[in-house]
């Protein structure tokens, strides 16, 4: 990625205004919504004892040539058979990210094949993927020793216990969708957020943490929102999304100052202040080719350290879903893809989501036991299952996913009525 006007990524940024303009330009790219993507993440456990701490060497051996360089220095990080790259999070969670596809059936088929291949690799070392969005057995423990995660851990640790949990104990399901045409982007942005509380509750499975009941249906959401509030919480939805996100990125703290061996940033430094010259003339500017200012490469890196529930990356990356057991990721992926498949359907989804829009914390705590969240989930499931054929997957899978989604809602309603 290069700076505006094809400047090199190492070009210093002259002001906050300049940085904001760049963020607004690159984070929301417009065009017909055509591509779909999915990223799957799991905690990793010893098959004979999920409580036992994970060993980085054993995980490295299992992944072999597919391991990322953050785990094995110099690794070629070869893709899996269908094209997905394997990455590893600070606590040893593994993630696969395949190429975006215009074909949802192809996306499902390729992702399922690469997930199966990853599970086979883990099994060679008697390791297995977790079944929840949060490590239900072990406290957070960082096994990656790269400067990025050391700096982030120290920064988050000063804010409370949730940052280390988010970094080392959580696993999510990410669904990636195009931002759409310019006149539709704000609508798609709002819909993905307003649907969030119901979808968080519908697929919540992370109540247990390190052997204890948290009291939250999705303690993963609790950890994520609490990591670096308000920047990890849902944003205000008024105004232009690109401009609002650019302001948020500027106001967010710098977590990694990539200068030297230790990447700790000065406490309280925001990217906007850095761009406006806060470090010019300081000791940190000595020997810095950029003279104490951030470069465009620094800005791109900064954006990668922000963890909102929906992150704009040119496309829209939905990050608020708990990881699902086995092939359970297919149902939320198809549901969200179907709901976002047409502007008229998005309007209906927004209407269905209205009762619980903004109820993120009740949804994460109570799950579908929250009356308004359950009402929305029921209506969203009804609307989405009727539109599953829009995804192009075969009828057997449509029936299977529809049955699974209705069962989640129906089981909750029966339990509440008993």
Computed Rg:
21 Å
- Measured between the Cα atoms of the first and last residue, the distance is 56 Å
Content-based structural category: alpha+beta
The best one-word shape is globular
Beta-strand percent range: 5-15%
What is the percent of helical residues? 40-55%
Q: What's the total helix number?
A: 16
Strand line-up of the largest beta sheet = 3-4-1-6-10-9
List the helices and strands and how they pair.
Layout: H1 16-27, E1 36-42, E2 44-46, H2 56-63, E3 85-88, E4 94-97, H3 104-123, E5 127-129, H4 147-157, H5 162-169, E6 172-178, H6 182-194, H7 196-202, E7 208-209, E8 212-213, H8 219-227, H9 241-251, H10 271-275, H11 296-303, E9 310-312, E10 315-322, H12 330-339, H13 343-353, H14 360-366, H15 371-386, H16 395-417
Antiparallel strand pairs: 1-4, 1-6, 2-5, 3-4, 6-10, 7-8, 9-10
Helix pairs in contact: 1-9, 4-5, 5-8, 6-13, 7-14, 7-15, 12-15, 12-16, 13-15, 15-16
Commentary on this structure:
The structure is a single chain. The protein has about 425 residues and is an alpha+beta fold. The protein has 16 helices and ten strands. It has a six-stranded antiparallel sheet, covered by helices on one side. The termini are far apart. The model is unreliable at about 1-5 (pLDDT under 50).
């Amino acid at each position: 990625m290069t700076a505006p006007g094809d400047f090199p990524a190492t070009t210093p940024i002259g002001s906050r205004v300049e940085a904001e303009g760049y963020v607004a330009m690159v984070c929301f790219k417009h065009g017909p919504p055509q591509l779909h993507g999915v990223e799957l993440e799991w905690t990793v456990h010893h098959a004979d004892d999920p409580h036992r701490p994970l060993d980085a060497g054993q995980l490295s051996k299992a992944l072999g040539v597919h391991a990322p360089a953050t785990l094995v220095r110099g690794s070629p990080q070869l893709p899996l058979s269908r094209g997905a790259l394997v990455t590893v999070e600070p606590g040893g969670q593994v993630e696969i990210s395949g190429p975006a596809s215009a074909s949802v059936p192809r996306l499902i088929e390729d992702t399922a094949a690469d997930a199966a291949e990853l599970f086979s690799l883990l099994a060679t070392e008697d390791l297995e993927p977790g079944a929840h969005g949060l490590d239900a057995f072990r406290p957070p423990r960082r096994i990656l020793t790269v400067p990025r995660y050391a700096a982030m851990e120290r920064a988050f640790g000063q804010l409370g216990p949730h940052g280390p949990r988010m970094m080392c104990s959580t696993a999510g399901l990410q669904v990636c969708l195009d931002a759409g045409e310019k006149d539709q982007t704000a609508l798609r942005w709002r819909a993905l957020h307003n649907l969030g509380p119901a979808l968080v509750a519908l697929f919540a499975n992370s109540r247990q943490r390190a052997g204890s009941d948290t009291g939250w249906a999705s303690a993963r959401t609790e950890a994520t929102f609490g990591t670096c509030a308000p920047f990890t919480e849902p944003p205000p939805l008024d105004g232009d999304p690109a401009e609002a996100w650019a302001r948020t990125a500027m106001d967010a703290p710098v977590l990694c100052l990539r200068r030297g061996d230790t990447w700790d940033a000065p406490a309280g430094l925001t990217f906007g202040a850095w761009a406006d010259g806060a470090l010019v003339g300081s000791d940190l500017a000595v020997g810095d080719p950029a003279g104490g200012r951030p470069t465009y490469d620094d800005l791109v890196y900064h954006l990668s350290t922000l963890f909102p529930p929906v992150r704009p990356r040119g496309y829209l990356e939905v990050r608020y879903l708990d990881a699902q057991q086995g092939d359970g990721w297919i149902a939320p992926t198809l549901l969200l893809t179907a709901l976002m498949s047409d502007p008229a359907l998005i309007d209906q989804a927004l209407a269905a989501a209205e009762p619980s829009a903004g109820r993120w914390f009740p949804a994460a705590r109570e799950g579908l036991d929250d009356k308004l969240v359950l009402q929305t989930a029921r209506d969203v499931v009804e609307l989405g299952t009727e539109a599953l054929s829009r995804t192009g997957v075969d009828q057997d899978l449509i029936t299977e996913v529809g049955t699974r989604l209705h069962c989640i809602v129906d089981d909750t309603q029966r339990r509440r009525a008993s």
